[in-house]
Amino acid sequence: MGMDTEQLHDSSQEADSSAYLLLNARRLLWLRAIAIPAPALLLIAAGLVYGYPAPTPRLLLIVVMLLALNAWTWLRLRSRGRFTDYELLAQMLVDVAALTGTLYYSAGASNPFAFFYLLPVMISATALPRRLLWLVTAATLGCYTSLLLVSPPLPDLAPVEQSGPLALHVGGMWIGFIVIALLIAHFIAGISTTLRDRERSLAEARERMLRHERLVALATLAAGAAHELSTPLNTMLLLADELDSGLPADRQGESRELLEQLRSQIHRCRHSLTAIAASAGTSRSSGARRVSAASFLRERCRDTRSLRPEAALVTDIDASTETVLLTVDRSFEQALSNLLDNAIDASPQAVELRAAMAGSQLRVEVLDRGPGPQAITEGKRSGLGFGLEISREILLQAGARLQFLPRPGGGSITRIDLPAALLSRHD
Description:
Blueprint: E1 3-4, H1 7-34, H2 38-50, H3 56-80, H4 85-104, H5 118-127, H6 130-149, H7 164-245, H8 252-279, E2 289-292, H9 293-307, E3 313-317, E4 324-328, H10 330-346, E5 351-358, E6 361-368, H11 373-377, H12 386-397, E7 401-406, E8 412-418, E9 423-425
Parallel strand pairs: 3-5
Antiparallel strand pairs: 1-7, 2-4, 4-9, 5-6, 6-8, 7-8
Helix pairs in contact: 1-3, 1-4, 2-3, 3-4, 4-6, 5-6, 5-7, 6-7, 7-8, 7-12, 10-12
């Protein structure tokens, strides 16, 4: 399975959602312990006070079953600490069934506690997705309607004819309950969805801020390293010049060629360090330029070949990228170069760069035959992983998506999806 740079953020959101459901489950325990058994307990107490026989055994059985379910739920939460939407839905439906049983043996829909049906609807509206909320709402409406149709009268009470004003009253209660339940399900669910969206937006904003702070810290560290390394590089360049001037005549050919290679590598390092120092702390837009995507990628591969002559780098750039302009800056260039270097370190003789349009996005893939994507993310390849971390942050800041996927036959695919905001068309 591939490793996505968004997985950490997604897992954080899943943990927040689980904690949210866990809190709702604990609230449900209190609701079940207090609100749902209340009609049954009050009817039992009224039977004892007024002396008429109430269906006490059946009502007590419902109360005991709810308490047992409460105890099981509490133990499960302590052992696992997780709760899903569907588990909360099942608990809400159990409460609806228990309330229906209690009301059935205590005057049915005419019981003044019949409006307790709204409690599961309200909790579901704030805790469950809309599609599951409507299941709870439908269950409560169905159970309440069934109590209107089939419900035994209270013991030792004279039956009252369901006609005239009383029938109108009961019918009005039924219509009023349906209207209130639907309004609660619709509006509270909308408010709850808005609040969850706001929390998600705030979490994403915090994540962006943390990524920005991490990138600033990396840039500061890189600038400091560039400053510290400039002195030894200048010293090495001076030593190379002195060695060149002091070479014996019989060794000038071969040794001078080696010294030229040394100077070339030193100049490369100085150029890279200068670019790092110049880009550290600057905004992306300050040094941005628009270039042809195909030309930019070929340029990066050409520079990589000159810097890494031992690499067998193959390119497969689709013609669809020729007419696409890509907004890049120096940091973006360095990020792609770092990913190419990482692939070359893994398998110098088998590196490939592919690029093509994928809908409105530009997809760039760097393929190698190294140990695989797990080794990339765990830092098992050679090097400190500093360049890879910087590349990851730069691409995320630019709005790109970075994935490390397994390559068929072995190796890894580093996939970069560049958003349409970085692209434009030219004729």
